[in-house]
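step: validate -> pass
step: tokenize input -> pass
step: predict -> running
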Amino acid sequence: MGEYSKVETDGRLMIVTINRPEVYNACHPMANQELVDAFDEFHANPELWVAIITGAGDKAFCAGNDLKYHAEIQKKTGKRPVHPAKGFGGLANRFDLEKPVIAAVNGVAMGGGFEIALAADIIVASDKATFALPEPKVGLAAGAGGMQRLSRMIPLKKAMGMLLTGRHVPAQEGYELGFVTQVVPHAELMTAARKWAGDILACSPMSVRATKQTVMRSLDVPTLEVAMHNLHYPAFVAMTRSEDTVEGPRAFAEKRKPNWKGR
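step: predict -> pass
step: emit ->
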């Protein structure tokens, strides 16, 4: 356990909890570095296949930048604290992560907190969750991927309606817009997130990584035909050469559960 975060593992699953509930799990540089370290471990550890990120307490997933801390540091030093190279929450700029991440949003997800969720592959939201990119209200902009990711995930005019006003969007509207995968009763949030993780873990991790990498790298390929013919991505090639691609059909033929190796 870190000072500002908690990390636990359950078999192939890692659960990362932002642990600053007294400030709605807002992140300052030290909290961000702990999250970087956690996801560095997730990325590097071959025994970990899926991650869930959530926030401590019942009120907030993450309220974004700890603006009070930033203001104090800027007043003392004349400089603004900088985010780590891997991005806000250790995820926003982590473009080389093929393993899936689930955001279990248990309350407020504002600014950088929403950007952490947008950087995940699946967002499971409590029915008490709210989302916003309110940076323009404090003279900033959603510089940790919010402007770019949200405008790619939902219709542009809907995204601009959120980005230009900083308005708060409840979980159900987020589901209807398309950036939330599932909305569940607040008390069932982690059960639902673990269910998603379990469903992913039932699949070959090699196939999951190949799928994620191919989807993400194909988003900006100009035509469908070119995208479908470009299957030379490393994770896809690794899948085709893996033990899992032999084990899957064999297990199906033998009417048993596959024994995935992840290699």
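step: describe -> The first helix runs from residue 29 to 44.
step: cleanup -> pass
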